[in-house]
Amino acid sequence: MTTINFGVGPLLRSNLIAGFATLAMICLCWLYLLSGAGMAMDILEMSVFGIPSLVLSAVEQEEGMQMSTVMIKPSLFGTTTMWWLMMIAMMLPGTLRHLPVLGSTSIRVSMSLGMFLSGYAAIWLGFSLIATAMQYGLVSVNVLHPTKMWSTNALFSIILLCTAGAVQLTKTKAKHLFACQQQPTSQSPWKLGLKYGAHCLFASFFLMCLLFVGGVMNIFWIVGLSLIVTVEKLLPAPRLFSAAIGLIFIIAAATIVISTI
Q1: Is 5 left (phi over 0), alpha (psi -120 to 50) or beta?
Q2: What is the mean pLDDT of the chain?
């Protein structure tokens, strides 16, 4: 039976301080999310188990829209920070096995790890800027709830779910996941972090966009998508798992279609 290596052991053995610092960073990012990420609402108030448009009645959605008119709107900087730290919290656990933890000295390991993580984080900062622009744009055209931050448009949800589902079935998705597991040693840690982050971004872009369907701060969707991207990176052959997840998204889109008929 094949065991899954999460990478925590090698990380701590190679450099205890750097390893604990990396794990602490992940924990702090999750605590930031659970505290509400500066969104002026309790995270449980922004969370629904399932697709909000399906599990909430029209009256509940209308009441939520009316309440949003008196809520404090997050700033551009606050929204970008929310997205960035959320991406680190969601994506970093799956990278632990692939971190460059080998080195001749502890200082070298710490520096390599820091440079790798800074390059990796830079990629997700770029995504966070894009996601923030998307969020503001979707709110402005009444497609996204202004405070709950989930889709209020059935067609938009269907398109995103179908797109994410279809991408899960492609060879391109499999190629980028495979590339995430390859660690060339000839590159600098910074460039390696950028390259690794880019592969993670291309493999997970539409998965992360599904937060617009279920809720950007919906803890059920955040945890669910985090588990998906982590398992995809850790499985030695994730193709079948990715395909199964893709089919689930397509079925979810079909459910929304049926509910609107």
Answers
A1: beta
A2: 83
Cβ-count burial of 184 within 10 angstroms (0-12 exposed, 13-18 middle, 19+ buried)? exposed
Residues 6+ apart with CB under 8 A from 116: 99, 100, 189, 190, 192, 193, 196
Q: Assess if residue 2 is contained within a domain.
A: no
Give the model's pLDDT for residue 67: 47
Residue 138 lies in a domain: yes
Question: With contact defined as beta carbons under 8 Å apart, do 37 and 103 qualify?
Answer: no
Q: Which residue has the higher pLDDT, 107 or 213?
A: 213
Domain count, the chain: 1
Of all residues in the chain, the percent with pLDDT exceeding 90 is 42
Is residue 3, in this structure, part of any structural domain at all? Answer: no
Q: What is the pTM of this model?
A: 0.86
Asked if the structure places residue 1 within a domain, the reply is no
Domain span at residue 247?
8-260
